[in-house]
Design goal:
The complex is a heterodimer of chains A (515) and B (335). With 515 residues, chain A is an all-alpha fold. Chain A contains 22 helices and no strands. Chain B starts with a helix and ends with a helix. The chains are: A mainly alpha (515), B alpha/beta (335).
Chain lengths: 515, 335
C-alpha cells in the first residue's frame, strides 16, 4: 500500500494539521520582523548573552544529572538482584505525576531560614537543577529500562564468559547498547528544561523562559519579548540539531532484535545496601518529600473545596479536549508517513515534530499577539487555549500513533485491500483500530502534559477560568502555600492514570518522541 | 469498533461536555474586570458586589502594568469593561482608552487622589514604606531615605518587587522629583549593591520575615495581610522621612473603558468601591487608607496627611510609566 497515492482527504487533513502547528512560529517571526530596531536591541545587551549562557548551562547540567541518576537506577531494576525490583520500577517512575513546579515548591518549603527542615537555602541555579533533575530523570529511567529489557543478553553473557567483571560488562557492553535510548531520553530532558517556566520562576533562576515572561509583563512594548522568544526557539533548534548530529555518529543498531529471553541477574552482594539506599533516597526526595510537604500544608489549613472542584473540572475538560483534538490531528500525519512513504510525507512528519522547538511561553505569546489584534472572537476563549495545547503537544500525539504504526504489520491492511475494500474504508476499519492503543497512549501523554502546563495556560486562559495548575501558581505567588496543597494533590491524582498507562507500555511513546 | 477506540470516542464526548460546562465561566459575564489587585486582597469584595448587584462578574487578575499593556495591545477589541488598578500610574498610562467618570462619583474622593482629566478615581490609599526584619534591629536603625540603601551596609540585604505597579510608580515619582539621571544612578547603585528582586510585595515582605533579607521597599498594607496568617512574623513598617521618594502616597483606583458595552454596570462597580461599606472593607480587611470622608483608618497607621511623600501629582505618574519600565529594563531589574 506504500506505493499508492494517499486519498486526498488524508493528505488535506495531514497538511492542514502541520500548517496549523507551524503557524504560531511563522506569525511570531512576521511580528518580530515588523518590529522596530528598539525591539532588536534586547539582543545586543550583555545581559542577554549571560541569559543564553545560563540557560544552556542549566540544560546541560540537568540533562547530565538526569542521565547519571537514571541509568544506574534502570540497570539496578532491570539487571540486578535488587530486592523489590518491581516496586522500584514503578516507584522511581512515579515523579512523572508531579508537575515540576510542585517539586520546586517542596524543595523551597524544606530549605532556607524559615524552611520545614532548615536545610541550606536552595535557590537559583542549584535549586532549579535539583528540581528539574528530579522531575525529568524518570524519562531517561523508563527508556533505559525498556532498552535493557529488549537487549539481547547473549552479548553480556559472552563478555562475562570472557572474564570481564560486572563493571567492565556494564561499561563495555551494556552502556553502548543503551546509548540510543539514553540519547532519546536525554533529548526529552533537554527540551523539557529549555521549555520549563515554573521551576526557574519559583527558584528565581536565570533562564530565557522566565526572561520572556518578565519582559512580557514588565514592558509596554511587547516586541522585545517576542524577540527573546525567538532566541529561545533558536537555542532549542540548536539542541535538536546537535542531537541529530550526535546520533548520526552513533551505531545505528538498536538494542538487539526481538529476543525476549530474560537477562541473567547480576548479584549485588555487598553493594546491595548502597544500591537500596540510592533508590530509597531518589524516591524519598523525588516522591515522598513533595507528598509529605503537601500533606503538611493541607493539615495546616482546611482549604476551601469549591474552587478546587471547579478547577478540577476545568483542568480535566481542557486536558481531555486537548488530548482528543491533538490525537485526531496527528493521526492523518502519522498514517501518511507510515503507510504512504514518500519524500513529501516524510518531510510532513518531520515538520510536525517542529513544535518540539516551541516552548509553551513562546506558543502562548504567538497566540495572544495574533488573537488580540486579528481574531478578537477567539481571544481569551477555551478554543484558543486548546489550539495552543494542540500546537505545543502535537509531537507527543504524533509519536504515539507513529510508534503504533511501525509496530503494526501492514499485512492485515493489504489483506483488506485484497478482499476488495477501498483504501479509505481500509484505513477506517483496519488501520485505525490497529493503532488505537498507540493513539490512546499518545493521548495520555498529551493529557498529562496539558494538565501540568503552566505558562500558556496563564497567558491564554479565558478570564475567570482557573485550572488546577493556575490555582497552584496563584496560591504560591501570594505565598498561600496551604491553598496550593489541595489543587496540587488533585493534579497528581488526575495525572496518575495517564502515567500508569505510559509506564505500563514501557515508555514506547516517549522513545518515539525522543527519536 | 475495538475497545480502545470506543474509549477514545467516549473521552472525546466527555471532553466536549466538560468544556461546554467550563466555557460558561468565560463567555457570558455581565461585567469583565481586569484587576491589578490580587485576588487574596479583593476577591471577597468583588464577590460581595456580585451578590449585591446580581451581576455575573469575571475577573482577570494580573500585575497592573501588565494589564495596562494588555489593554493597550487589545485596543478596540478589549473584552475588559473595568480596569481596577493597584496604582495611579497604570491607569494614567492608558487614560486615552478610558471614558470620563460622572461628577457624583468623582466628588466622593478628594481631588488629589483622582485624575485631573476625570478618567479615573482613586478608591483606597497606600503609602510606600521600608519594611524591616524586627529580629535583626530596631526601627531607629532603619534608614530614613531610600538613597541610603545603596550603602555597603545593606549589600544583598534589600529586596524590592520590580514587576509591581506600586514599585514602578515609586520610580516614576523619583524621576519626577529628583530627575532621570539621579534615579538611574540610584537604580544602578542598588543593582550593584546586590538588591534582591521578587515577583510581588507579598513575597518581598515574606522574605523579610524569613530573614532572607533585612529591608524591603513595599506598600504598607502587605505586612498586615501576612500578619493575619502568621501573627509572629518578624517584620514591621518604617515610614521614611517627609519628602523622600520612598514615602510616596499612591492610590488603587478604577477606570471604565470607552469600548465597554456595559458602562452602566461598570459604573455601578465604581460606585460600589467608593461606598462606605467598601471603604470600611479597605480600612479593616486590607489595612489601606479609606479615601472617603467618615471612614476610619486602621488604628496603628499614621494619619494619611502626616505621610508626606515627594512633591509629585498622581495624575502625572501615567505619562511616566512607559519610560519608567524602559529604565527598569535597561538597568536590568525587570529581566
Amino acid at each position: 500500500m506504500s506505493a499508492r497515492r494517499p486519498p486526498w482527504v488524508l493528505s488535506t487533513l495531514g497538511v492542514a494539521a502541520v500548517v496549523l502547528v507551524c503557524l504560531p512560529l511563522a506569525y511570531l517571526a512576521v511580528r518580530v520582523a515588523g518590529a522596530g530596531p528598539d525591539a532588536w536591541s534586547v539582543l545586543e545587551r550583555p545581559r542577554t548573552v549571560g541569559l543564553v549562557a545560563q540557560t544552556a548551562a542549566l540544560v546541560a547540567a540537568v540533562t547530565a544529572a538526569a542521565v547519571v541518576v537514571a541509568v544506574p537506577a534502570a540497570w539496578l531494576v532491570a539487571r540486578s538482584d535488587l530486592p523489590g525490583r518491581r516496586f522500584w520500577a514503578v516507584t522511581l517512575a512515579l515523579p512523572l505525576v508531579l508537575p515540576s513546579y510542585v517539586l520546586a515548591l517542596a524543595l523551597l518549603a524544606v530549605s532556607g531560614p524559615g524552611g520545614l527542615l532548615g536545610l541550606p537555602e536552595l535557590e537559583g541555579f542549584t535549586g532549579a537543577l535539583i528540581a528539574l533533575t528530579l522531575a525529568t530523570y524518570p524519562l531517561v529511567f523508563l527508556l533505559s529500562i525498556a532498552a535493557l529489557r529488549r537487549a539481547d543478553p547473549a552479548l553480556e553473557e559472552a563478555a562475562r564468559g570472557l572474564g570481564r567483571t560486572p563493571v567492565q560488562v556494564f561499561r563495555e557492553v551494556t552502556l553502548p547498547l543503551l546509548r540510543p535510548s539514553v540519547a532519546a531520553g536525554a533529548l526529552l530532558v533537554a527540551l523539557y528544561t529549555l521549555a520549563d517556566f515554573g521551576v526557574v520562576s519559583l527558584m528565581r533562576a536565570e533562564a530565557l523562559t522566565r526572561a520572556v515572561y518578565l519582559q512580557y509583563r514588565g514592558a509596554f512594548d511587547r516586541e522585545p519579548a517576542a524577540v527573546l522568544a525567538l532566541l529561545l526557539v533558536g537555542l532549542t533548534l540548536l539542541v535538536l540539531l546537535g542531537e541529530q548530529r550526535a546520533r548520526a555518529r552513533m551505531p545505528s543498531g538498536s538494542a538487539g532484535g526481538r529476543t525476549v529471553r530474560p537477562a541473567p541477574v547480576v548479584t549485588l552482594g555487598r553493594w546491595r545496601g548502597p544500591a537500596l539506599a540510592f533508590c530509597g533516597a531518589l524516591a524519598g526526595v523525588g516522591l515522598l518529600l513533595p507528598v509529605a510537604v503537601l500533606s503538611v500544608w493541607l493539615a495546616r489549613d482546611v482549604p476551601s473545596v469549591d474552587g478546587v472542584v471547579a478547577a478540577t473540572v476545568n483542568s480535566l475538560g481542557v486536558a481531555l479536549a486537548a488530548a482528543a483534538v491533538t490525537t485526531a490531528a496527528a493521526l492523518p500525519v502519522a498514517v501518511l508517513a507510515g503507510r504512504f512513504r514518500s519524500r513529501w510525507t516524510a518531510a510532513l512528519e518531520r515538520t510536525g515534530y517542529a513544535s518540539n522547538a516551541l516552548p509553551g511561553i513562546v506558543a502562548a505569546l504567538a497566540f495572544v499577539f495574533f488573537a488580540a489584534r486579528h481574531a478578537p472572537i477567539v481571544y481569551q476563549s477555551i478554543g484558543l487555549l486548546v489550539a495552543a495545547y494542540l500546537v505545543r503537544f502535537f509531537p507527543q500525539a504524533l509519536a504515539g500513533v507513529s510508534a503504533a504504526l511501525t509496530r503494526a504489520e501492514p499485512k492485515l491492511e493489504e489483506a483488506s485491500r485484497g478482499l476488495g475494500r477501498g483504501m479509505t474504508r481500509t484505513l477506517a476499519t483496519v488501520t485505525v483500530p490497529l493503532v488505537a492503543p498507540g493513539m490512546m497512549a499518545g493521548a495520555a501523554l498529551v493529557l498529562l502534559s496539558t494538565l501540568k502546563e503552566l505558562p500558556a495556560t496563564l497567558i491564554l486562559r479565558p478570564t475567570g477560568f482557573d485550572t488546577l495548575a493556575t490555582e497552584v501558581w496563584t496560591a504560591t505567588s501570594v505565598s498561600q502555600y496551604s491553598a496550593a496543597a489541595l489543587p496540587a494533590l488533585a493534579l497528581c491524582a488526575l495525572a496518575a492514570p495517564a502515567v500508569y498507562l505510559l509506564v505500563a507500555r514501557g515508555g514506547r511513546e516517549l522513545e518515539q518522541l525522543g527519536n | 469498533m475495538s475497545r480502545p477506540l470506543v474509549l477514545l470516542v467516549l473521552l472525546l464526548g466527555a471532553a466536549l461536555g466538560l468544556t461546554a460546562c467550563g466555557s460558561g465561566a468565560g463567555s457570558d459575564a455581565d461585567l469583565t474586570i481586569y484587576s491589578g489587585r490580587n485576588e487574596e486582597l479583593v476577591g471577597s469584595l468583588i464577590e460581595r458586589f456580585e451578590r449585591e448587584s446580581g451581576l455575573r462578574v469575571d475577573v482577570r487578575y494580573g500585575d497592573s502594568a501588565e494589564l495596562a499593556a494588555t489593554i493597550a495591545e487589545e485596543g478596540d477589541n478589549s473584552p475588559a469593561d473595568v480596569f481596577f488598578s493597584q496604582d495611579a500610574g497604570a491607569l494614567g498610562a492608558i487614560e486615552d482608552t478610558l471614558t470620563p467618570l460622572p461628577e457624583p462619583l468623582l466628588a466622593a474622593v478628594p481631588e488629589r487622589f483622582r485624575d485631573p482629566r476625570d478618567r479615573w478615581t482613586g478608591v483606597s490609599g497606600r503609602a510606600r514604606v521600608i519594611a524591616y526584619n524586627t529580629d535583626r534591629f530596631e526601627e531607629r536603625e532603619v534608614p530614613d531615605s531610600v538613597f541610603d540603601l545603596t550603602d555597603e551596609r545593606w549589600r544583598g540585604k534589600v529586596g524590592l518587587p520590580p514587576p509591581n505597579a506600586s514599585f514602578q510608580a515609586f520610580v516614576s515619582a523619583m524621576r519626577l522629583d529628583v530627575g532621570d539621571e539621579r534615579t538611574r544612578a540610584w537604580l544602578e547603585a542598588m543593582k550593584a549593591n546586590d538588591v534582591q528582586t521578587y515577583d510581588n510585595n507579598i513575597q518581598t515582605v515574606e522574605a523579610i520575615g524569613a530573614g532572607e533579607i533585612e529591608l524591603g521597599l513595599v506598600n504598607h498594607y502587605y505586612l498586615y495581610e501576612l500578619k493575619r496568617e502568621d501573627p509572629g512574623l518578624a517584620a514591621a513598617n518604617h515610614f521614611p522621612a517627609s519628602g523622600d521618594p520612598g514615602s510616596l502616597v499612591n492610590v488603587a483606583g478604577v477606570g471604565i473603558l470607552k469600548t465597554s458595552e456595559s458602562e452602566e454596570d461598570a459604573l455601578r462597580f465604581a460606585r460600589f468601591l467608593v461606598a462606605k461599606r467598601s471603604q470600611q472593607f479597605f480600612a479593616d480587611e486590607t489595612s489601606e487608607y479609606p479615601l472617603v470622608e467618615g471612614v476610619q483608618r486602621r488604628g496603628e497607621l499614621p494619619p494619611l496627611d502626616a505621610v508626606i511623600g515627594p512633591q509629585v501629582e498622581l495624575g502625572r505618574l501615567g505619562e511616566q510609566l512607559r519610560s519608567t519600565l524602559k529604565l527598569l529594563d535597561e538597568v536590568g531589574l525587570t529581566t
